[in-house]
Every structure is written in structure tokens, then in C-alpha cells.
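Complex record, two chains
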Amino acid sequence: MIDVNSGAVHAVDKLLFLLLDHVTPPLFELPEKTAIDGYSGAEILEALLDIRELYGIGQLYSDDDYEKYAENMVLSPIKAMCLNVSHDCNLRCEYCFAETGDYAQGRAVMSAETGKAAIDFLISHSKDRQNLEVDFFGGEPLLNFDAVKEIVSHARSKEKAHNKNFRFTITTNGLLLDDEKIDYINAEMENVVLSLDGRRGVNDRVRRRADGSGSYGDVLPKLQKLVAKRGGKDYYVRGTFTKYNMDFSDDVAALHKLGFDQISIEPVVAPKQMPYALTGEDLPRIFDEYEKLRDVLVNEKRAGNGYNFFHFMLDLDQGPCVIKRLRGCGCGNEYVAVTPDGGIYPCHQFIGYDGWRMGSVHDQSFDLGMKDMFSKISVYQKDECKTCWAKFYCSGGCSANNMRYEGDVKKPVKLTCDIEKKRLECAIAMKAELAEDSPVVV
Amino acid sequence: MKYVKTLNKPNLKETAAKGGCGKCQASCQSACKTSCTVANQKCEK
């Protein structure tokens, strides 16, 4: 049982759960002749005392008094940048949200000079933020690796003078990895996101080269080598599931068997008319898979072979503050993406969509009106979120997803919400199961 | 309490008073790049 506004997560006896249907705050008066099958009057009174105690300490029916913080991030510095160093790719993945790499803008790579200008833009707009994140993204960033190295070197040269700490990440399909690139990435990149979809057949059906051949055989040993030499630094093997592999829990298990222990498998982002797109009809099957995955992860953890599935990772005690939880990823406000020509967009998923270009790192132009609009987006601006129990976990969803499929950055996509809520249910239930060492009904 | 076991130390109210420093990671940068879960991020204060 979750108390949404305090963040309390309670494992409760069935009696207490049933009793909540009979009483209401603030007095929780028990209607005369209240009976709950299988429980004595004395037990019901004991459970009632527990309910009153939880309420008294602010862990049940607590108030949502956070709306006053909804505009706390207006005028926020920019602290994160997605640097699209390559709008080209050596794969032609069927489901690519970037239109097989070029974002429908034509194939191009970023010059080192543009990348350096982007770093300078980030520094100049970061005010007092010390930690600055830059993700090398694409397309495939290894197609432009010399520029990556020049950009990293430029940023490092500026850290001391500007009191900044750059944290680089790279998202790659791994095809062009070699020993030199692996060693460089492991030295410089705080996190690495490695694209692979799980089982060979699943991966090669969609993650193909231009000639139609699959990529799994070439990619897998390179990813394994990179991870083996990672030295404990963060990484994720990140796959996508589609209508083609609704049994995606088997892909997670397959990745684990291959030696990976930091795994993310995400639902495909696609228009519903595409053959691989997920739709509302798929939800029961998707939910079953998440349940199955939860069982697998709990059993592996109990057996001492635990591993992480990104969307089941929740720290119920030390997560982000509620002020961050009100507004989500920070796109267009604390976070921007830069294209090979130096164009600035709210995030990588807005690239290629008319009307969302915010400026250019070359002339330092930047649409502060659009930044202001993004800075004010919070769960309180979204009707669907205001009353949702998951609002402080997902924080209102993905603005780009909302724009693409609902035509409004403030209108959550129901399918995405349903999937997210199921993942959160499973993540919280896992915590309860591992704490209680017993099954939990969700 | 006999019928309840609280699994965490609920502190959202406290974080409202002390939070908002902005030192934490932008949530989309970590692994997904296509969907948003904020609660799995770390507080870096």
C-alpha cells in the first residue's frame, strides 16, 4: 500500500486493507455492526488503531502540499546535453525513432568545432551547476569517434577554470568497437549504454545492417569485452521490445546469461500503425511479462545471482527530492539536445519535428520562451497526473512522447502510463517481497 | 503496529524542504532515452 504524498510504502495485512473500505479520515469512525468475514471484532479494532496511528504520523492519507514548488525550476541552469555527433548509422533498425539514424534531416556528422561550441554553450548556461552531463548519441556516435575525443578533450580543458565536472556517457550499437575505443570509453565515460535486444533471433529481426544482415554475431563479443574491462563503472545493456517479442522477459534472461548484470529493455516508441508497435490490446501480455520478470528477478536475487533491470530499480529511501519528482526529466529546461549542424532542441526525441528548434550553439541563440514553457511543466499541469498514484515515481512522463502521440507535451500517452504503472507496481512489489521474503499480491 | 510493516523511511515531505538543489542526473540520460522514470534516480546532495 502506497501513501502517495509521503512516499510511504506499507506491507499490510489483508484485514487492514479491507477495513480501509469502511472508514474515512480524519476520524476513521467505525460504522456500527461493521463485519469483515473471517475476523473478530477485537481484530478489527486492532487494525483500526494501526490505521489511526499511520494517519497520525503522516503516512496514510497525507496531504499533497507540493504545488507551491511547481515552478521552482523556472530560470534553472542547463546541466545536461545530448550531443548528436552522428546523424548517420551503420544499422537500419526497423523500429528506430530516429528514422534509421538521420532524424529525417539527412545524413550528417557533427564537426569537432560544433561539438566544442556545444560544450561552451553548456558551460555558459550552467551557472553554478558543477556536474554537467554530456551523452554522445546519434545515430551511431562511433562513426564520428575522432570528434568525440576532441570534444571530450576540449571539455576537460575547461573543467578547472570553470569549476565544472563533466560526466560523459555514450550510447552505441557497438559494431565499431575495438580495443582502442573500448579502453577510451572505459576511461572517459561515466556510463555506457550498449544496444542489444536480447536473443539472437529477436535482435537480428530488427537490428539489421543496410544489406539486411543481422548484427548480433558481430556486436555481442565486443559488448562483452567492453563490460569485462569496465572495472565496475556504470553501464547498461539496453534493448527494445516490440510486438515481435512480447516474451521479452526471455530477452532479459538471455542477456543475463550472456554475462550482463545491468539491463534495460524498453517498450518500442512507434506510431500505432507500424507492425511492430505496441497497442492497448497488448497490455495484458505485457503485464504478464513484467510479472514473470519480477518473479525471475526475485528468485535470482534470493539465489545470490541478483541483477538489475533498469525500470525495476527503485530506492524507496534515498530517491530524488519531491521537487525533482514534480517535473520529470527536465527536457527543454535543464536538458537539451544538439544536432550536427549545431541546432538546439528540447531533447533528442524532438529533433526533426517542426517548431521545436530552440536555437543554435554557433550564434548562442536560445528560445527562452520555450525554455520557460518547459520549466513550468509539472504533474499539476496534467489532469491525468493530478490524481495518479504514480505521479511522484514517473513525474508526468515523457514530453516528447506526449508531443508525438497526443500532440501536446502536457498530455500523457495512456499506453505509456499503463506500462509505467505496471513496472512501478512490480518494482515496489519486489521490494516488499524481498523485505518480507514472501509473495506479494499486486 | 500489528497489521502493518512499513518498508521504507518515507521522507517526501522532508525533501520538499531541503531539495531542489539540481545536482542530480537528468533522468533521461541514464539508460532509457525513450521513457521517463524519475524515482530510480539518485539524490546527490
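Note: Chain A has a mean pLDDT of 94.
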